[in-house]
Amino acid sequence: MSELLTTADGRPLKAALAKAERSKRLRAVLLVMPLFIFIFFSFLYPIALMLFRSVENPLIAEHMPLTVAALEKWDGKEVPDEAAFAALAEDLVAARKSREIGKIATRLNFETGGLRSVITGTGRKAERWEPPYKQKFIDERAEWGMLETWATLKRLSPTITTVNYLAAVDRKFDVQGNIVQVDPNYRIYVDLFMRTMWMSIVVTIACLILGFPVSYMLASLPLRQSNMLMILVLLPFWTSLLVRTTSWIVLLQTQGVINDLMVWIGIINESQRIQLIFNAQGTVIAMTQILLPFMVLPLYSVMKTIPPSYLRAAESLGAHRFLAFWRVYVPNTLPGIGAGCLLVFILAIGYYITPALVGGQDGQMISNMIAFHMQKSLNWGLAAALGGILLAGVIILYWVYNKMVGIDRLKMG
Amino acid sequence: MSQISLPDHAGPVETIWHWSYIAICSFVFLFLIAPILVIIPLSFNAEPYFTFTSDMMSLKPEAFSMRWYEDFMNKDIWRASIGNSFFIAFFSTILATVLGTFASLGLSRAEMPYKGLFMGLLISPMIVPVIITAAGIFFFYATVNDYFPLTGTYQGVILAHAVLGTPFVVITVTATLSGFDHSLTRAGAMLGADPTTVFFKIIMPLILPGVISGALFAFVTSFDEVVVVLFVASVEQQTIPRQMWAGIRESISPTILAVATILICISIMLLATVELLRRRSERLRGMSPG
Q1: What value does the mean pLDDT of chain B take?
Q2: How far is CA B204 from CA A356, B114, B173, B197, B267, in A?
Q3: pLDDT value at position B5?
Q4: Measuring CA to CA, which residue among A286, A227, A202, A228 is closest to residue A252?
């Protein structure tokens, strides 16, 4: 029979070890906790709050309760009866008193253009009206005789809604409650997502094409020289984003340095100055330069670990230099290519500042639209929905990056 | 060793390839650095243009002037924004560095449970598009303003910038700790030092280069941040980037080039500090011959 191993003070060794490990684990967790709590409250919770904004919709249910109740049984086949109009009149008058009518009008207007003036206009008149209301409403604004107006009201009645996400992919509910595409003139978001993806892909590929030879040079030069050249990669990395964006404006604008240079050399004459910036191509050029270090650094750190003897071995076995490079060296750099491309793509897809400053009309990306709805149109629900879709994409890419590369291997300089 | 030097027996194809390779690399380096360098001479332009005048090309002294720097120094709004930028960056850096360093010490311990998950969450402010972070913080501040004013206050901007800065501290400090020899702390403890003494006498001096690098990254992140400032700050917290943002969008004046040049000088100093620290740390830990 085996003797139970004990510590000096007589406790079983197994239990003592478990206790020691528990306290060690606790100590590690306690060190992480302050930052975790900080990040939780000032980052994770705010983002959850924003995502909740994309589905919450308390306004109509709260301030037009009678109308919402009256529309509960409405089948959407014909204009509602007098009872619904009476409820509407009472709600509008109450909303005007509580000064919430403006918000209601704005919310309905996001959904169906033109409803703002319908709500505020009839709201003002409804105070003096006596029943029956139906004909008075329809005479005042023909919209009240349309199914679409009532369908919009009914659609916005629930406190949790998917309309923002539908709007974010250019879809809406029709009068019968089916999901349909919006009018061709209003289809902008799907195109914008596509353009954002497309621009990010172009920037990523451009960074790879430019970054690969440079990383190879840095990895194969002696340390002293490569450290010198590395500064050329790191300095842009440390320089303010706004400074670099300003420089691109200075370089690329029609009266800028590049155009001046081309006129001076004689490639173009004074009247042929090219619009290089304030469009998609200017945005891509500036973003490529700004994100290039994020491609070079991971590529370089992978290339640094590939022994040069591999290439020499391939060549001595009879492979031509280019073949050896392509078949032996390049496959070894794939982890670096993957890491660099993913990182550049993730950063590019959420880019805001550069497109906002140099994007002009056709260089805007999805982040710019989110900012527009946050600050200008104040359609926060739609901004949150667009942000939610963008965030979902970024999280998936981040997860892939973590699986493939590991975030602990993220390096800066 | 050097793979890019040309062997003596190289044929014409290889010679052409070799020189075009050098040319391509030079072009990329130029592409990286030229936009930064071109700003510097232009900021001394005596004329209010963003391009080299013919007088500048012929190096006439009267074509150069310090007028944009004087303009920068004389405008109250710029002076105020320098002060704000340093103030906000300083406090958010301290917050980010302290929290980030302790978290990294925990994350580097083998006993830490769910290490990957925590690491992923703590790094995420760097990955999530800043517009989403800014929107989230905007909504969050709006809900807590009644209890603790954050929108349009210094503490609001500092907290938000600390969030954006912590991932950099966590990354650099965990990287430094990955080469850390844990038997040193055990040796210290065995020789009778309590955990606080071990931390300040043994751990801190060894990871200090990583901590300082992380702090500098956090500083730059705050110093260059504009989106959160646009969403949650008021005019009172005007920072340099926000002032530049307004300048580029509305009336672009060469004063911006003077500011940009000053910022470039700051970047160069920060880069030099971080590089020195990195080499020192690698030498201390015997990781590189340089």
Answers
A1: 88
A2: 42, 25, 11, 10, 26
A3: 67
A4: A286
Contact list, B223 vs chain A (CB under 8 Å)? 240
Nearest residue to B44 (alpha-carbon basis) of B251, B258, B244: B258
Interchain pair A243, B39: CB under 8 A: yes
Q: Which residues contact A302 (CB under 8 A, 6 or more apart)?
A: A332, A333, A335, A336, A339
Written as one letter, the residue type at B131 is I
Distance (Å, rounded) from C-alpha A110 to C-alpha B58? 58
Q: What is the DSSP letter of A183?
A: P
Q: Is A298 helix (H, G, I), strand (E, B) or coil?
A: helix
Residue pair A61/A159 in contact (Cβ under 8 Å)? The answer is: yes
State how many domains chain B has: 1
Q: Which domain holds residue B131?
A: 76-252
In tens, the pLDDT along A316-334 reads 898 888 888 899 999 999 9
CA nearest neighbour of A203 among A292, A266, A81, A85:
A292
B182-211 residues touching A, CB cutoff 8 A = none
Q: Is residue B174 part of a domain?
A: yes
User: What is the interface size between A and B, counted as CB pairs within 8 Å?
Assistant: 282
Chain B from 104 to 123: CB within 8 A of any A CB: 105-107, 109, 111-113, 116, 118-123
Q: Cβ separation of A394 and B127 shorter than 8 Å?
A: yes
Chain B residues in contact with A391 (beta carbon < 8 A): 128-129, 132
Q: What is the pLDDT of residues B46-98, one digit of tens each?
A: 888 777 777 777 777 888 888 889 888 888 888 899 999 999 999 999 999 99
ipTM for this model = 0.89
pLDDT for B4: 60
State the Cα–Cα distance between residues A64 and A91, nearest whole angstrom: 5
Report the CATH number that the domain containing residue B222 is assigned in CATH. Answer: 1.10.3720.10
Q: Which of B50, B133, B278 lies closest to A256 in CB terms?
A: B50
CB A118 within 8 A of CB A144: yes
Question: What's the pLDDT score for residue B49?
Answer: 77
Cα–Cα distance, B33 to B283 (Å, whole number): 29
Which of B161, B3, B33 minimizes the C-alpha distance to B91? Answer: B161
pLDDT one-digit tens code per residue, B100-124: 999 999 998 888 889 889 999 999 9
